[in-house]
Amino acid sequence: MLRCRPLLGVAEHFFTTAAIELREDQAEWAAVAAFAGVPGDRLRLLTQVHGREIVLAGRDDDRPWLRPAADAVASDDPSVALVVRVADCAPVLIGDRRLKIAAAVHAGWRSTMQRIALVAVESLVREFGSRPDDLVVAIGPSLGVCCGEMGEEVVDAFRASGHAESDLSRWFERAPGRKPHFDLWRANRDQLEAAGVRREDVHIAGLCTKTHPDAFHSYRARGATAGRMAGVIRPA
């Protein structure tokens, strides 16, 4: 398990590694819940769809959790652990040092194109009264720009989604004779900053999953046989 030191002082959290595969193995999920300090039925997993939908898991909501279709979940309930699953996409964990609320975000390139990190911050502000400069963010192991090869159609999709050319020039690294390489970490950091989070409060693991396939699960490295990792955070 990996943790981000600055976020530890705000919310209990961790990122899993290749030590577990996290398919539908109930024993592995029970271990994740135990490590998070909650019963298994208090894990708040999602049906991730590479969109920008944010769902809430509020402390007053006692309805059964049915894995809603979304790519981020936020809560003020310390009895639940918020979970996103990844295998190259970025797990983005957010804690509020003042209000002790949290969010977990699944940010692949498609969700990043749809500004999911910015939308998550806006949701915390709107639903819980967060102030962006009270937020601490950890971006866990995920595909680095070194291995983030994309087709020109991806750049065109970002452009069609309204991203400025100045953003595209920072987020897509170009070199002679090769396709553009997407900097997933920088794109999410820039969007968090655009939402008002301070640069010094965005912490990037800087570990590429494809570069280290023995330590992390990577779809780019192993295809459909790849396991999954989890980013997990519990409101204080």
Structure, described:
This protein has about 240 residues and is an alpha/beta fold. It has a single domain, classed as CNF1/YfiH-like putative cysteine hydrolases (4-Layer Sandwich), CATH 3.60.140. Helix content is about 25%, strand content about 20%. It has eight helices and twelve strands. It has helices at about 5-10, 25-35, 110-115, 115-130, 150-160, 165-170, 185-195, 220, and strands at about 10-15, 45, 55, 70-75, 80-85, 90-95, 100-105, 135-140, 170-175, 180, 200-205, 230-235. It has a six-stranded mixed sheet with strand order 3-4-7-6-8-11. A hairpin with a 5-residue loop joins β6 (about 90-95) and β7. α4 runs parallel beside α7. The model has no long low-confidence stretch (mean pLDDT about 95).
What are the key terms here?
12 strands, 21% strand, 236 residues, globular, six-stranded mixed β-sheet, four-stranded mixed β-sheet, CNF1/YfiH-like putative cysteine hydrolases, alpha/beta
